[in-house]
Design brief:
Distance between the termini: 11 Å
Oligomer: single chain
Structural class: mainly beta
Shape: globular
Largest sheet: 6 strands, antiparallel
Helix content: under 10%
Number of strands: 8
Radius of gyration: 20 Å
Mean pLDDT: 88
């Protein structure tokens, strides 16, 4: 599925964000606009006029690095002796986000042998639409809720690539 095989993600610059809670959802939302002519009362067809791709997940590992990922890397994270810090940039440069790419590994339909098969989804250009809430109580499992919106890459590079293991 990749030069590194079906299980191992490609090397750098990919970063494992750790565990998730509730899975990961990849969604495609297409909008078709009807085509009409005056002489016929029924629509004669439709044209695809809008396409949105998004990935939604809850990051369960409450690290500053994951929070920074959810904030599209606008913060500065520093590791010191015995502690780490994060400063969130709200200056003019924060309006120019850093796009990221995602790799999502999950299950594909079973192989002809009956063995489980893998599916890898690569979303090449995303920004997180995060609403980060850090709740501190004894009963709530912490998570960072993220929805990553995909964006156009180029006419020669598809924004999403999906590969299923077949053998």
């Amino acid at each position: 599925m990749t030069p590194n095989g079906t299980v191992t993600p490609p090397s750098s610059p990919w970063t494992d964000v750790g565990g998730t809670d509730g899975g990961t959802t990849y969604e495609v939302d297409n909008t078709y606009t009807a085509l009409q002519v005056d002489q016929i009362i029924m629509e004669v067809g439709a044209r695809l006029t809008e396409m949105k791709f998004s990935v939604t997940t809850k990051l369960s590992e409450m690290t500053l690095a994951n929070l920074n990922t959810a904030l599209n890397n606008i913060a500065t994270v520093a590791t010191n002796s015995g502690y780490s810090t994060m400063d969130i940039n709200v200056g003019s440069s924060a309006s120019q986000p850093t796009y990221a790419a995602l790799i999502i590994d999950g299950w594909a339909p079973m192989l002809s042998t009956g063995a489980p098969a893998l599916r890898r989804v690569i979303v090449r250009k995303v920004l997180s639409q995060v609403k980060a809430t850090l709740a501190f109580d004894k009963k709530t499992q912490q998570s960072i809720d993220c929805t990553f919106q995909a964006y156009f890459v180029s006419s020669s590079i598809a924004p999403v690539h999906i590969a299923d293991q077949t053998s």
